[in-house]
Amino acid sequence: MKILLLGSRGQLGTTLLPQLARFGDVEAYDHDGIDLADASVTRRRILEIAPDLIINAAAYTAVDKAESEPQAAARVNAGAPGVVAECASELGAGLIHYSTDYVFDGNASSPYKEDDPTNPQSVYGRTKLDGENAVLNSGASALILRTAWVYSLHGHNFLKTMLRLAAERDELTIVADQVGSPTSTLALTDATIRLIEYFVEHDGFPAEVRGVYHMTCEGETSWAGFARAIIAASNDSDTRVTDITTADYPTPAARPAYSVLCGDKLDRVFGIRLPDWEDALDTCMTGQ
């Protein structure tokens, strides 16, 4: 089998790439290899490579910057997934595409299910939802995996920022009125590998399993709670975390106040359930 990984140097791509070789030949590209903002280049390169499975872990993820660069965000988050999915459909290839909790408005009080109404409140969220719809409308053999609060020990993310700041300061002020499920790239990779195993065993993703799934770690916490857990797990800092509100820390893009995603469908269809977020954090921090 030939696998094409897009976004190979992002958080998830970096964790996922070493695990793919077991399935066959892997071609991995970041934006300097295939510029997803250029639809014609993207289409030509994918058709040249002719993969059996495409994993799109690439996205325009600068949430606040997207507010002032909506066209740039749309090219990568909305236009590119449509091109990738059309190529997958033409080639008869499978597609795994990652999306986000930002497709919801965050006004819920219980975990979002896949068929709950979407109502994105930011350019990033709107462009990611447009990308989902482009994949769904392509007819490709595709799975769309919505995830949230992604972190790892490499790249730019909340975990890395908290570890750095905790080494520099005695106190951190962190937003406590946004609730979600921190999700490590290790947990996402393990779940994705199981989906690829399913793809191999079934010679594709049958029509009855295609569509949208939620893929986050179990449980929920606030950003402040996540920060406290990170500091506790680091074992070398006594930095205090003080709760603040979203209003105390305004940003150009609106963040969902509640973005917990229900993972029951992924479990029901594929028998996959990600670990509790605290266990996943321990695994990430200890490497065990």
Average pLDDT metric = 96
Shape verdict: globular
| Count of DSSP-assigned helices | 9
CATH topology: Rossmann fold
* Percent of residues in β-strands: 15-25%
The counted number of beta strands is 12
Radius of gyration, whole Å: 19 Å
Give the end-to-end Cα distance, rounded to a whole number of Å. 30 Å
Estimated helix fraction? 25-40%
The domain count comes to: 1
What summary fits the major beta sheet?
A: 6 strands, parallel
CATH superfamily: NAD(P)-binding Rossmann-like Domain
Assembly state of the chains shown: single chain
Supply the CATH class. Answer: Alpha Beta
Order of strands side by side in the largest beta sheet?
Answer: 2-1-3-4-5-10
Look at the helices and sheets and give the structural class.
alpha/beta
Question: How do the SSEs run, as a string of H and E?
Answer: EHEHEHEHEEHEEEHEEHEHH
CATH architecture: 3-Layer(aba) Sandwich
Q: Which residues sit in consecutive blocks of at least 5 with pLDDT less than 50? A: none
What distinguishing features does this structure have?
288 residues; alpha/beta; Rossmann fold; 6-stranded parallel beta sheet; two-stranded parallel ribbon; 9 helices; 39% helix
Q: How would you portray this structure in words?
A:
With 288 residues, this protein is of the alpha/beta class. The protein has one domain (2-152, 183-218, 260-275): Rossmann fold (3-Layer(aba) Sandwich), CATH 3.40.50.720. The protein is 39% helix and 17% strand. The chain has helices spanning 11-16, 39-49, 70-91, 123-137, 158-168, 185-201, 223-234, 264-270, 277-286; strands spanning 2-6, 25-29, 53-56, 94-100, 141-147, 150-151, 171-175, 179-180, 183-184, 211-214, 221-222, 240-244. Strands 2-1-3-4-5-10 form a six-stranded parallel beta sheet. Helix 4 links the parallel strand 4 (94-100) and strand 5 (141-147). Helix 2 runs parallel beside helix 3 (70-91), helix 3 (70-91) runs parallel beside helix 4 and helix 5 (158-168) crosses helix 7. The longest helix is centred in the first third of the chain and has 22 residues, at 70-91. It is globular and about 55 Å long. 47% of the residues are buried. The mean pLDDT is 96.
